[in-house]
Amino acid sequence: MPDHIPSETEMIPSGPSSRTLKRVGLGAAAVALLIVVVGTAERISATSRLRDIAAEASIPTVSVILPKPGGAGGALSLPGNVQAFSSASIYARTTGYVRERLADIGDHVRAGQVLAVLDAPEVDQQLAQAQADYQTALANQRLSGTTAKRWSSMLKQDAVSQQEADEKAGDLAAKSALANASLANVRRLRALQGFTRITAPFAGVVTSRSAQTGALVVSGNAAAQPLFTVSSTQRMRIYVRVPQSYSAQLHPGLSATLTLPEYPGKTFPATLTRSAGAVDAQSGAVLVMLESANLDGALKPGAFAQVTFTLPPDAGSSLSLPGSALLYGSGGPSVALVDQQGMVTVRPITIVRDEGARVVVGGGIRPSDRVIDNPPDSAHTGLRVSVQAAEGKSAAHAH
Question: What domains does the chain contain, in order, with CATH numbers?
Answer without folding.
Answer: 61-71+316-398 (2.40.420.20), 92-119+196-226 (2.40.50.100), 121-194 (1.10.287.470), 233-311 (2.40.30.170)
